[in-house]
Specification:
Layout (H helix, E strand, L loop, with lengths): L2 H48 L14 H4 L14 E2 L5 E3 L6 E3 L5 E7 L4 E5 L4 E4 L2 E11 L5 E2 L2 E2 L2 E8 L5 E10 L4 H7 L9 E7 L12 E7 L7 E8 L3 E3 L1 H10 L17 E3 L2
Parallel strand pairs: 1-8, 2-16, 11-14, 11-15
Antiparallel strand pairs: 3-6, 4-5, 4-12, 5-7, 6-7, 7-10, 8-9, 10-11, 13-14, 13-16
Length: about 280
């Protein structure tokens, strides 16, 4: 075999090898690129499924909140709401009437349908004083039927009035409502409804929140939590003993705007003591 013939064979072999290597590299590059896209799409799909939004029904209902909201306190030992049994509540002589400073000059800033409740947000000015600490009213919202129960009785509606102090400590005044005569304050509030889920409507009108409080301001109090995720604990609850009255039509108007039965079930006391203002 001549030298030139051997050289030709070697060169052809090298060329074939180079082509094979290039083809392999290109194939690997495309494979990697396609896999990155596929993994990315899979992750997007998983992320959307990984964090379902909490609701009041089925697999995303209150019994599953702790699974859905991984960083929440929904499995804590001092949760709300609770069933308040009057004969089991402790008369506490150290308790004082709540100092409520609600002015008729404070404006409702806006109303929101957040998909869980109807919420009215207030401008600064209304506040309560608890244990010498001023707590500003932030917002009010509604649960239908009530979340707290009194002697096992669940009321048609419960209004939560949420207050926060300078240390971010939360206090909530809870007002139950029974069905009866029409309530003019509720008529005013509901005139800004209906509202689609996720929508916010400006109000910017003065409202005297005293009109939504019972005349008798005796209360039960206990240490609990927010009743929706993240179920933050350390919330001071003040549940008025006496309900206010609103009409059936007003209950139904709010009912149309909120998820049916937007309440969390009774939570165990786990040794907590419910106190009441001594009579």
């Amino acid at each position: 075999m001549s030298f030139s013939y051997e050289f030709e064979i070697i060169m052809k072999t090298k060329a074939t090898l180079i082509i094979a290597i290039v083809f392999t590299l290109l194939s690997c590059k495309n494979y990697t690129k396609n896999n990155i896209v596929a993994v990315s799409e899979h992750e997007k799909s998983n992320n959307s499924e990984e964090h379902p939004h909490w609701t009041y029904m089925g697999e995303t209902g209150p019994e599953h909140w702790a699974e859905i909201e991984k960083q929440s306190s929904c499995e804590g030992k001092r949760q709300s709401p609770v069933n308040i049994i009057d004969i089991d509540a402790t008369n506490d002589t150290s308790l004082n009437p709540i100092t409520i400073n609600y002015s008729n000059d404070v404006k409702i800033h806006d109303v929101t349908n957040n998909g869980h409740s109807i919420q009215y947000s207030f401008e600064k000015g209304d506040y309560i004083v608890v244990d010498g600490k001023k707590k500003e009213l932030v917002q009010i919202h509604f649960h239908e039927p009530s979340e707290h129960t009194l002697n096992g009785i669940r009321f048609p509606l419960e209004m939560h009035m949420v207050h926060v102090d300078s240390d971010n400590k939360i206090a909530v005044l809870s007002v139950m409502a029974t069905e009866g005569k029409n309530s003019e304050p509720f008529t005013f509030l509901e005139k800004y409804l209906p509202l689609k889920t996720g929508a916010t409507k400006p109000v910017n009108v003065k409202f005297d929140l005293n009109l939504n409080l019972p005349k008798n301001k005796s209360y039960y109090t206990y240490d609990g939590s927010l009743t929706t995720p993240p179920c933050t604990e350390g919330v001071s609850w003040f549940v008025f003993k006496t309900p206010i009255t609103i009409s059936v039509g007003q209950v139904k108007q709010l009912q149309k705007q909120m998820p049916l039965n937007n309440y969390r079930n009774e939570q165990p006391l786990n040794g907590r003591i419910i106190k009441q203002l001594a009579q």
